[in-house]
């Protein structure tokens, strides 16, 4: 605001947003939010997906997965926390893979570890609210 002019409006010159990548809807379906080396925000497609035709914030699956074509790609520091998920406690990573392979709507899973257990958070239908963060 201008000095000496209490009725003038404020002008924003800087804004801090902590954890912008975790704001739901920053990217569209099947995409993950990430900042590049210049700290510019962008939506990226995970392996097996290409940018959607409608805008640069969504991704579409390149090939539909069939039967024995299933494979999982490790993505460090990536999380998808969409609405259509199931969290299951398991004893080993292979349990996550087996369960997802046996469900036609499973798009993948996020593996979460804590001090006492292993959790698979299965992603069904489409990947939503994806983001990359070293805090994941």
UniProtKB/TrEMBL annotation:
It is a single-pass membrane protein. Residues 59-136 form the Apple domain. Its main location: membrane. GO terms for biological process: recognition of pollen. Transmembrane segments: none annotated. It is found in: Membrane. The keyword Disulfide bond applies. InterPro entries: Pan_app, S_locus_glycoprot_dom. One of its GO terms (cellular component) is membrane. Keywords: Disulfide bond, Membrane, Signal, Transmembrane, Transmembrane helix. It comes from the Eukaryota. This is Apple domain-containing protein.
């Amino acid at each position: 605001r201008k000095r000496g002019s209490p009725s003038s409006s404020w002008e924003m010159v800087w804004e801090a947003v902590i954890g912008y990548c975790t704001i739901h809807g920053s990217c569209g379906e099947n995409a993950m939010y990430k900042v590049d080396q210049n700290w510019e925000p962008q939506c990226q497609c995970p392996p097996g997906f290409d940018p959607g035709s409608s805008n640069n914030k969504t991704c579409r699956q390149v090939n539909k997965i069939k039967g024995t074509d299933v494979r999982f790609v490790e993505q460090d520091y990536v999380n998808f926390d969409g609405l259509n998920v199931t969290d299951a406690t398991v004893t080993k990573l292979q349990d996550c893979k087996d369960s997802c392979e046996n469900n036609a709507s499973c798009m993948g899973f996020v593996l979460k570890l804590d001090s006492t257990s292993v959790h698979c958070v299965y992603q069904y239908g489409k990947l939503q609210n994806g983001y990359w963060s070293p805090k994941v």
